[in-house]
Prior knowledge:
There is one protein chain. Helix content is 98%, strand content 0%. It has 108 residues and is mainly alpha-helical.
Amino acid sequence: MIFEICAVLSVIIFAILAFFAVRTLRALESNLKNIDCITQDVSIKMSLLDSTFKSISAIGDMGEMKLNSLQDREIKFKDLSNLDNDYSDDLVEIVIASIRLGTKLFRR
Length: 108
């Protein structure tokens, strides 16, 4: 008698567990279908945006090349202006040094 009651209870418990397992799997299946639709929609939108991303990348590359050329021009301009200033600074230093040397000689 106890054995039959335990067997019936185990069958009922198994049926309840199987019911909830099937219900959970069906809910999971519907969620996965929704996720699949969303990922397909996102992949379509991303493929449409690829041309925009390529255009932005090309504009960025052109801007970088322009910036590099401007930096090169600025460096060359600074080098040329530094060369002019270096000669004048050297000349000023030579004149000041000669005046100091002359004053030291005249003091003696």
